Amino acid sequence: MNNIHVQMTKDGTHTLMSSLFDDSYHAHNGAMTESEYVYIESGFKSLSTDFTRVSILELGFGSGMNAILTLKHALAQTGKIVKPIRFVSVEAYPVASEVIRQLNYKQHFNAELAALFDELHQAPWDCDVEIIPGFILHKVHGKLADYRAPEQTINLIYYDGFAPSKQPELWTQDNFDRLYPMMMQAGMLVSYCANGQFKRNLKAAGLRVKSHPGALGRREMTRAWRP
Q: Which of 107, 115, 157, 203 is deepest in the core (most CB within 10 A)?
C-alpha cells in the first residue's frame, strides 16, 4: 500500500512522503522553492521563445505543484494565458483528495490561484479539461512506459519522478529512447536529478545535455534539449 502523508519543509510549504517508495515528492529544504527553480525558472521560463504554444509532458502529477506554478507564471504578466499551454501529466499513483486538502499551498496563492489549484485536482482523469482559456490539462492515470504521444508534439518535459535509487524503472534508457521522438526540435527536458547514468541515458537517446546549478544546496540539476 502507498501510504502518503504530509510533511513541512524549510520554506514553509508542504511536501508529501510516500511509504511505497520511501521518498518525498519535493525537497525537504523547500518544496515550492525547489519546484519554482527547477521547473519554472530553469524550464518553463527558459523555453525557446520561438515556440508559439507550449506542450508540457510531466512525469508525476503528485501534489499538483508543478501544474499550479506553471499556471501562476503563465498568468503573471497579463492575467491571462498568452501562449496556449497543453499540460499532460502521467501519474501511476494519484494522491487521495483527503491528503491534497491537507496541503498548505493555497495559503501561498491569491484567491484566483487557490481556486485553480482545486480545479486542477478536481479535473477528471484521462481526458482534456480546459482549466481556463488557453490552458488544457490532461491527467493520465497510468505509467510512463505505457504513454504514447505523436512525434514532435512536446516541447517541454518536467521529469519529476522519485529518485533513481527509489524508482529505477523510470530512469532506464528505453524511457528516453521513447520520449526523444515525441519532442520537438529545440524541445527541452528539465529534472532536479543530476545522476550520471541519467545524463548518459539522455545523451544516448540523442539529447544534448547540460548540467545546471541545482536548487537549495544541490550542486547540479539537469537540462537537455533535442537538437
A: 157
Amino acid in position 10: K
- What span, in angstroms and rounded, lies between the C-alpha atoms of 196 and 55? 27
Amino acid residing at 75 = L
Report CA 156 to chain centroid distance, whole Å.
10
> What is the DSSP annotation of 134-169?
TEEEEEEES-GGG----TT-EEEEEE-PSPTTT-GG
- DSSP H or E run through 75: helix 65-75
95 alpha-carbon distance from chain centroid: 15
Cell 519554472 belongs to which residue?
Answer: 40
Q: Which residues contact 5 (CB under 8 A, 6 or more apart)?
A: 16, 17, 99
What is the tens place of the pLDDT at every residue in 181-212?
999 999 999 999 999 999 999 999 999 999 89
Q: Give the whole-angstrom CA distance, residue 21 versus residue 100.
A: 18
189/208 Cα distance (integer angstroms): 10
CA–CA dist 109, 64 (Å, integer): 14
